[in-house]
Write a structure and sequence with these properties.
Elements: H1 3-14, E1 27-32, H2 34-37, H3 39-55, E2 59-65, H4 72-75, E3 78-79, E4 83-87, E5 90-94, E6 97-98, H5 102-109, E7 113-117, H6 127-145, E8 152-156, H7 168-180, E9 185-187, H8 210-229
Parallel strand pairs: 1-2, 1-7, 7-8, 8-9
Antiparallel strand pairs: 2-4, 3-6, 4-5
Length: 232
Amino acid sequence: MHYFTILLSLGAALLGLSPAFADTPLHVLFIGDSHSVGTFGKTMDTLLSSLGAEQGGARVETYASCGSSPDWWFSGHETPCGYFSDVDGKKTETAKHATPLLRELITHQDPDLIIIELGANLMGDSLDHAQTTTREMLTLVSEQLAKKPGRRCFWIGPPNGRNKTEPKFSQLYDLIKTETIGICELFDSRLVTHYPATGGDGAHYDSLGPAGRLIAKAWAQSAFDQIKNANP
């Protein structure tokens, strides 16, 4: 076996992906909300891009739409508060932008690894709406995963914040956990984030300044470590 192929096989093994991906570029699709527009998402984007060096051929596409929930990724709702994308190193950052349509992103990229950072903006919706729209997104993801053995999905749940009141926050997490079973592995961001009692806007870590950005970077690293080290 050629040395290059061995490297690709090892890289695929690190992600728990099928060896079938070892001889083709790994396609990674990462979508998220305002946290992904900010430090968390940009850190994750950089970390995911590092997989390309390890495997010699990963292609990462990142799209983040501030204020978005699963339904925006089907309606194309315009974000009024920030948009970020990075496609093959070409970055776009603007205040207003239509939320990309997930079905079009999947059709265009045909991803092997799908990473979703959503849920924070479902706090203002009913649990019935959260379930319906989350299930719609996961149905589409499930269809994509079924096309080829070894494909994976990870759902990064919302982090702690003063605006995440109980019992709604725990109920929302229980809902996401139930809906993602058998489709996406859930990363519980509550375990690695803590929002202080004062300062910031109560939701976004970037609003806390340098200390908050450090929390966001550590959160991204923890989520990335789970993605990288996950077993099939």
